[in-house]
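Researcher: We plan to redesign the surface later, but first we want a full-length starting point. Tokens attached.
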């Protein structure tokens, strides 16, 4: 074909948007159409076999891709776990390997440090010290905190110079173990009424032990609680604790002290020991008080719910034991008598319900209990529970403690006994740290002869 004829067949102008013509592909096969029925069946079988093989290959590809993805995720998880483990182990290794400066170098740094640190003193002032290099928090209830002779922590007036623990206007302090409420006073004075005319006066109470109340698995701190014993009743408590182990002794030897410690920490024996002490009346009874200080802002409703739940669990436990004893008595044809601590109907009568209603009413409608405020629960020799509150008052010079306000009283001794057992006896106490520290205080007073104890806190 000549070039002239080819040019005549081509388009001179072509639309740019016209679809591109697709080449026509013809299916070429060497197979000839089947001629017989057997050939047709053989061809169908062959094609079905090929489709099955293709499907199997497709499934193998999917499984392989899934295995690769899973292996990638596993490697990623392992690397993340390794990183988390190293981030926890590395600080411990650094702490172990990092050498602290020797004491002489540290003292040299303190002596070479300038007295006036400028802005640093305004941001982070040095603690007040007397003869000890230990640091202390600046204030306690409007007084400065210093460390006096004998390594005793005291709170003294800001104007006093070189105060001592024997000064009249100083307060000896005991560390609590938390920075929110760092100190508890070793002795407190609480209002009381004496004589037939109920003359108002003050009585001194000595700290026996303290601890932090924690809740939930996160161990969130709620308040610090301390058990105080009236100083004039310490000999009665001492005598009863000694008689628990050795009625003929005036003080306990090391082996007997270990026996008393085990009894006070045992779930069953601790309840029996403290119920025996709390059930005493008259001259043998012991005046005690719990001092509760919130470590963060809370309200009376929250504190009330905690005490009410604890009392309810104790009464339910007593009823359960009572039911078990009744069933045991019926099984043995009433050949046994019920033990005295678990009397039938002890917490089932109407008077106990009214007493619990009065206890609940002590804290209703009281509002907030800010951090640092003080709630006092006292138990008299007759078993009467009194509640007092000392709030925090804000002034131009800062915060100071207000006056004690009486919240009310509950005369049924069962209520105060149950509240005391929440911290002292049983399987689950409100604060295990407080119970252990109180037990240490009990061991500290029984190692001295009866009548010579001065209420030392370990």
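Model: Full-length starting sequence:
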């Amino acid at each position: 074909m000549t070039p002239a004829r080819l040019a005549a067949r081509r388009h001179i102008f072509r639309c740019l948007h016209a679809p591109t013509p697709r080449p026509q592909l013809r299916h070429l096969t060497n197979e000839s159409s089947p001629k017989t029925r057997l050939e047709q069946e053989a061809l169908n079988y062959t094609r079905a076999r090929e489709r099955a093989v293709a499907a199997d290959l497709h499934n193998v590809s999917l499984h392989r891709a899934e295995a690769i993805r899973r292996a990638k995720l596993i490697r990623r998880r392992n690397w993340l776990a390794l990183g988390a483990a190293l981030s926890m182990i590395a600080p411990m290794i650094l702490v172990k390997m990092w050498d602290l400066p020797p004491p002489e170098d540290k003292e040299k740094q303190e002596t070479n440090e300038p007295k006036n640190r400028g802005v640093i003193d305004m941001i982070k002032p040095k603690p007040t010290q007397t003869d000890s290099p230990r640091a202390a928090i600046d204030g306690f209830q409007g007084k400065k905190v210093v460390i006096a002779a004998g390594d005793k922590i005291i709170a003294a007036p800001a104007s006093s110079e070189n105060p001592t623990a024997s000064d009249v206007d100083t307060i000896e302090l005991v560390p609590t173990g938390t920075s929110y409420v760092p100190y508890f006073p070793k002795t407190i004075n609480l209002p009381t009424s004496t004589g037939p005319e109920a003359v108002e006066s003050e009585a001194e109470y000595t700290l026996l032990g303290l601890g932090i109340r924690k809740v939930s698995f996160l161990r969130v701190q709620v308040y610090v609680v301390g058990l105080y014993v009236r100083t004039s009743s310490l000999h009665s408590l001492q005598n009863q604790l000694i008689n628990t182990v050795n009625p003929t002794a005036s003080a306990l030897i090391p082996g007997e002290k270990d026996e008393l410690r085990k009894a006070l920490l045992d779930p069953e024996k601790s309840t029996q020991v403290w119920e025996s002490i709390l059930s005493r009346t008259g001259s043998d009874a012991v005046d005690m008080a719990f001092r509760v200080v919130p470590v963060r802002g809370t309200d009376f409703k929250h504190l009330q719910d905690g005490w009410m739940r604890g009392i309810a669990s104790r009464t339910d436990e007593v009823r359960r034991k009572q039911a078990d004893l009744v069933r045991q008595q019926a099984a043995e044809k009433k050949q046994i008598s019920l033990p005295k601590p678990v009397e039938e109907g002890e917490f089932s009568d109407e008077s106990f319900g009214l007493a619990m209603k009065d206890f609940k009413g002590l804290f209703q409608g009281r509002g907030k209990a800010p951090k640092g405020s003080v709630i006092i629960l006292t138990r008299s020799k007759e078993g009467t529970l009194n509640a007092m509150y000392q709030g925090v008052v804000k002034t131009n010079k800062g915060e100071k403690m207000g006056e004690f306000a009486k919240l009310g009283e509950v005369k049924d001794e069962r209520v105060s006994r149950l509240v005391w057992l929440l911290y002292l006896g049983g399987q689950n106490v409100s604060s295990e740290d407080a119970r252990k520290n109180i037990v240490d205080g009990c061991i500290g007073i029984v190692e001295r002869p009866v009548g010579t104890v001065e209420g030392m806190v370990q």
